[in-house]
Every structure is written in C-alpha cells, then in structure tokens.
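We read letters as residues; the fold follows as tokens. Both lines appear below.
***
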Amino acid sequence: MLRTITVVLLIGLLAWAYQATQPPPPKICGTPTGQPVTAPRLKLRDGRHLAYKEHGVLKEIAKHKIVYVHGFGSCRHDAVIATELSLELVEGLGIYIVSFDRPGYGESDPDPKRTVKSLALDIEELADKLGLGEKFYLTGFSMGGQVVWGCLKYIPHRLAGAVLLAPVVNYWWPGLPSNLSTEAYYKQLPQDQWTLRVAHYIPWLIYWWNTQKWFPASSVIAGKIDIFSSQDLQLLPTLARKQLYLPQIKQQGDYESIHRDMIIGFGSWEFDPLDLDNPFPNNEGSVHLWQGDDDRLVPVLVQRYIAEKLPWIQYHELPGAGHMFPVADGMSDAIIKTFLLCEK
C-alpha cells in the first residue's frame, strides 16, 4: 500500500511539474480568444501578421526612412526616437519612421520559431512591403538594440545606417573575454543573474521561473526600483503615457513576448557580433552605439569593449546617464543629428 501511494504521489508531482512548465496558448489578436486588431498590419512570408505604426512625414516624400525596433516589454507605441523628435527636425530633414510590434507583442502574431535571424528577415520584409526602398536606416533601443546586431549580420546590404541605443548584451557571446563578461554579469541583481541562467541553460523552464512564487525572478518584469539609475528615476514621469497602452503590450500572453525575448536574447547565438565586419567599408553609411555610463541594466564596461573591438562603430558614452537616456529632453534630436548629419 505504501509503495502504491508513493508511486501515485510521484506521478502526481511529475504531472504538476510538467504542467507548471507549460505556458498557456497565446491569445492571438483577431481570433475568437484574442483582442480585436486595431493597428495596420501586413502579412509576412509565413502567413504571420506584423502590426506597425508610421510617424513623421509621408514616406513618399521622405528623404530619410527609419525602422525603429522597440525594447523589452514594449510595443510599436514605444518609438522614442519618433515620439520625442522635434517637429522642426522631422520636417527639415524629411524623416519618416515606422515602428512595429515585434512578434508576440502588441498586435503582431507570435512566432514560435523566432530566432535572431528570422527577426532580421521580418524587418527586411516590413521595409519591402512598405516600399522603403533598397536601403533604409535602422534604430533599436535596449532589447531592440540587440536586434540591430542581427540585422548587421543578416541584412547589412539593406541598411543605410544603424543606431544601437543601450543595446542589451548577451553575456555568452564567445568574443567577450570571460573575466569581462563575468564582472559585468555579477553587476546585476542576484535574481536577474538566476533568471538569465535559466534563459540560457534551461530555456524550457523560463515560463515556470518567471511565474513561480518561491524565488524572486526577473526584476525587470517586476519593475523593481533598484534597476533604475538616479537619472532614470527623474525620467520616469516622462514614461507615464505608457499607461494608456500598457495592457496591449502583452495582451497575447507573456510567453510569446517577454519570455521568448529572454530565451532568444540570452540563448546561444549562431554568430558572434564581435566577429562582424564593417558593413560600410567605403563610408557610405555609419553605425552608432550610444550608452550611459550609469546604466544599471546594461553595464557600460561591456559596451566599451565592443566599441574597442569594432572600431568602425562610432561610440557615444553619456556621463551620468542611465538606461532611459533616449527620453531625456533633446536627446532624440541629438542622436538623429549625429546619425544623419554627422554632427558631433
């Protein structure tokens, strides 16, 4: 009898453990279980839909066409370069910007097969279907900045230039010296160290890890105040408008948005960004990396190494700035002027 009870309990425990690791199916927009589609969308090569939002002057008259890639836990509305850019600069330079919901976010269909490469190809297809021309500019912030590395690898021939704003670093990129990546890794809160370990080594557990209540999981998901620098805290009121569309960001489910972001961003990449060649050997374009030296989310020492290793990147370090520096007053204008007009 004791053996039977033990077996039953063990089976029950295993069944519970398995169930706990399985995320619920996504609630896809436009289906009976999902929210209605409200944004313009285009259909991709594999049948998925990508939702987007256009800013600035009409693309038919634009002199500069920019694709903006949002960060972690964000959506097409979080296009800081577009929303914070002065009207004078937009009209004076003829700037058109399109932001889009990355797969699983907002109203873009989830992509269970999403990879670093597939997202670069999504961006290329977005540009083609919107008629942005042979070449376009690319800007990405935070996790969106990390996406830019994939575009520099897989579609460099389509880029007129690129900007990485505080791009998230994968501590397991082979080109990072182990002592440097270790030092940077341990600058994070312990709970984030564990979260990234799970995302990298046992990704199938990431849903359970981020939803269980036994141990503290991602501080970013929890929105802990500890992750913000003093400048970030001053800038938080600027982000209050995000409350207007906050429910839209993860409306299709946490797993296909933020959890898959972690799995891809901190997984084993099929290329090393530190091995990339200059995509503009004849100075026909440029790549810029902007970083605050008081960023609590992305350690500045790693960005310094990347800039040293890849001298073709124009590196801009901002003293006293945190992770949210792009929303600071006048910052978007300064970034775009430096990028498009080569101003210092």
